[in-house]
Here is the input.
Amino acid sequence: MATEDKDKPRHDQWAKKAESKEERKVKARKEGDRSVWFGLGMFGLVGWSVAVPTVVGALLGYWLDEKYPGARSWTLMGIVIGVLIGCLNAWRWMNKEGGKR
Here is the structure.
């Protein structure tokens, strides 16, 4: 009896380790292959999601500066608004991807 009581904590630790490893394997199979290339692709996608709205904002601001000249720089405002929209877009996308894990 005394030997069985001593082995029980050791058995519980082993069972927890085995369960943890099995959960990791199942999770890895569900997610598929997330290699270095996946990380680089995500990095590039986040970059584009910020760059495109920034360029569009700059072009729209430049057009407004040409059409309606004034004391304010529409180009600068377009760049700032484009960066803000791009960052919000990237943040939203990263939160969505992070929730899959």
The helical segments are 2-31, 36-67, 74-98. The CA atoms of residues 8 and 32 lie 36 Å apart. The longest helix spans residues 36-67. The mean pLDDT is 82.
